[in-house]
Amino acid sequence: MRAELAVVGGGPAGVAAVLMAAGLGLRTVLVETGRVAGKVAEIGALDNVPGGWSDGAALARALAADIDRLRAAGRCTLVSGRALRVRACEEGTETELADGRVLAADAVLVATGVTAPDPGDAPWLDAPRGLRLPPLWRTVPERIARGAPAVVLGADRPLGTWLRAHPDAAVRLDVLHSAADAHKTEEVAGDSRVRLTEVRSATVTEEDDGLFHVTAVPTHGAARRLRTATLLGNLGSRPALLDGDLVPGPDGYCDPAAQHPRILVAGDLRSARYQRIVTAQGSGAEAALGHYYGARGVGDTNQAPARRRSRPDA
After folding, report:
1. DSSP code string of 224-254
2. pLDDT reported for residue 1
């Protein structure tokens, strides 16, 4: 049976969209490559998500349980696979998977989120082509050698989250970041485990001894040369785009207002500014609700009524 709504991505935005759609009685299919809420499960600490969730693992289990409950009730179908492209057709949408399957639906909601950029994508960083860095937010303290500092490239928000998640970790983080990330360092500036260095540029080489050599040119002061066995990435994110009819903006993110009416966008894919779990959940639910009303020709009932003009007496 053709789905009324296909949702690509089983993170907070995708799960919220499925829950809303199921509650509205829409035939819904969820496409997910790995585990539902798999990325959420690796977040060490949560302090800005309502409901008292202390870490990502607990929230991820609850989100996965929501999908399991809907599947058991026959209100959602879970498809395991990697989506490659989405297309808008005259009477609906098609979502093509890597294994060749094509899923037809009245509309598709893309909630694929973001992924870590390659180090070479950072304009201030010169790194070997193909270098893949373990992200800081997935790194457990035990992976960082005691007494030897880890070098962290970038000062994106997960730095503060990681430190709050591991308040007793006896680690040292040598954080190199550009001026563009300087405003993000305020929340960690007082943590004695962190050394922050704003740099104009940094060069990374990987030596035969398995160590990384980093030459940093600070915004102020002399060049620094660092040698470490633990080099971690914290450079922010880039949109996880799909081919086809998805319309990215100049920054790569997908403004929902710029998409085909049958292609919806929710979660971190929308904007670099609103990448939070709660904003992702709200956008997913809102997109599903908007599709429900739009497909039925129902306008925005929240619009204030126009003020009636008085007519002068004849």
Report:
1. EEEEES-EEE----EE---EES----TTS--
2. 67
